[in-house]
Specification:
The chain is α/β, with parallel strands linked by helices. The protein contains ten helices and 19 strands. Strands 3, 5, 6, 10, 11, 18 and 19 form a seven-stranded mixed β-sheet that branches. A six-stranded parallel β-sheet has the order 14-13-12-15-16-17, with helices on both faces. α2 packs across α8. The radius of gyration is 20 Å and the shape is globular. The chain binds beta-D-glucopyranose. The site of beta-D-glucopyranose has 11 residues, from α2.
Amino acid sequence: MKALTVQPMQKGSARLDDVPEPPDSDGPVLVETLGVGVCGTDIEILSGEYGWAPPGRDRLVLGHESIGRVLQAPAGGDLAEGDLVVGIVRRPDPVPCANCAVGEWDFCRNGQYTERGIKEHDGYCSERYRITPDYVVKVDSSLGTLGVLLEPTSVVAKAWEQVDRIGGRAHWSPRTVVVTGAGPIGLLAAMIGVQRGMDVHVIDQVASGPKPDLVKDLGATYHTGPLHQAVDAPDVVIECTGVGSLVFDAMEHVGPGGVVCLTGVSSGGRTLDVDAGILNRSMVLENEATVGSVNANRRHYESAAGALAAADRAWLARVVSRRVPIASWEDALDRRDDDVKVVIEVGS
Ligand code: BGC
């Protein structure tokens, strides 16, 4: 079968390969892949900066944001042929650590977790894959292939859960949220904020293209200036860029008792001048919290499935701004101004 494979840490090594059918050891559910989303992590893997092949192999099948259709599932279970499904990315470490042992693999303590399409386990960008039922999440059939947005939505569903758990230290009824970055993660974080009835503000640097309208059509407000000009003392900031200056801006300007959730992965090598004393002082005197958040466990996928089911299909269809057949996969990596989420179409 066809699969998009890469040699991790080897720039320019990606190719469309012929690979064996998925091994039975991956699980009894056989899924036909319909589409795979491309995100910043994939670009890093393709650039030779991230990723790990499965033990004993040089190449990894790429793809961790997927939508597929069940071809075979064990009788008597929750899954049936034809169901639209998404595979969870992370698998618990084999030790397992205390978090992986209770299904909180997104908080793995020892780093020995695996991730499909990223770390030591083949991903979903192949014509078919196998999986165990407990790592499959069903999506509302009316979403069709827009279900490819489930994985990125699970990441922000987790971020919102972190915000709520931390905010819940004291009375917590947040009104205003600032989301920095209007890429897919920022837009989906904003979508959940609107679904929660909050006053949502999204900041990005571009003034044209699809992002300003996508934000407005959510019922949120779009800004291109600095955070403190957009909103005074927001209750929540969800930082979706990983840009160091925006991270510190968020920490400096979040409101008293507020929560900053960092979801962007930054590359190192840049330093900033920061008045650490002032930052410390305001964080202490105003009980502010900053938390990092990555990945998602099953609870977050299920919450994300609910958020997508409640979302406007036409809006989601604009988030998936470009679809590229797998035969032309290289076009999917070529960033265009109007791109939001690009999806590689694997099946039909
Ligand atoms: C994925 C996460 C993963 C992270 C780090 C992100 O792109 O969405 O599931 O944990 O990369 O590998």
